[in-house]
Amino acid sequence: MNLADMLTFADIGQLTTIASHYHCECKHNSKHELIQSILVTLNRNDFIGQQIKSLSVDDLRFLNAILFESRSYFNVEELIAIIRQTSFTVAEGNNLKEHPKAASPREVIARFKKSGWIFNGMTPSTKYLFQVPRDLKERFRKELASYLRSTITVVGEPSFYREEQGLLAEDLLFLLRYVHEQSVELNLESTMYRKYQQQLMESFHIAEPLLSKGGWRFGYGRTSHMYPSRLALMYDYALHMGYMDEQGNQLQLTARGMERLEQGKSEAMVQIFRYWLRLYKASIPNITSLVYWIGHCADGWVTLDSLHNALGWLIKPYYYDTPESMMEQRILQMMVHLGLIRRGESEVDGTVFRMTSWGKMVAENCPFLVNDSTL
What we know:
By secondary structure, the chain is an alpha+beta fold.
């Protein structure tokens, strides 16, 4: 339902509140005049841009979250949960504490209602639920994309860059073949012994350094603490799809894995991409929107620093992972492995990135792909 429809169903009390918030000059006892005045104000070309620039960072994070929600309705508990998730804590020394000036979740909801960005449902079954006007969501998303792009540093083509489109799917097929042909043993922690990992790396299109002992790694999949990130994604995906199975101290190919191997067809990269989104969502809840915004910001060659400056405020630290390391290692580097983006090195501009054609298409449709339940 669009804004005009929701205003029509809203009671005169809420209309008066919205009109007063925007200092609309109209008769407050006329519902028709209230609606027309609010629509004129909210439909101004510069309205959304002005609102984005005036919002606090916490409000922007909350707005970003609901822009990418597939749900049509929210109950108050769901909105409160989203607000708490998007209201980050600030570090002081070694301690973390909530920002003392942060508004309560119910105050945020009331403020968004007063702004005319959230409305109650219009039917008896939805009157205690909340919804966001569909056209307003699209306008906010379009204007926010423009705002973020304006902060990006665009540079020339680097002297060297790497693209890995389709290579991960080919290496996944090789992993299945290797497990079928070799007797792959697992240690007591159900991890492949290092000699098997090393043999895989020597045969993969893209090799990764094996993990050393110590360090902190969890939250990015079942085996993220056992294997390098790219291998961990392939391994977890193969287990999830039922291509491999851990039987005691042996890693074995399943009948389904054998069928995939006999077909000789690489896995569809969009399937692996969707799995990656779900896998990393636990530690990066708004990863869908981050991929979407990167797709809009990195249409040309852009610097790593400017990407972080533009989008780092959306990334919540995850234990010892900082927003900077999460942006580069957990998001951008994995997007390179998935074939979504190219990574280059420039003597002048440092590390730079640019979306591939396929990556731009996938990023644009990211909000819809992640909600597809066929995987």
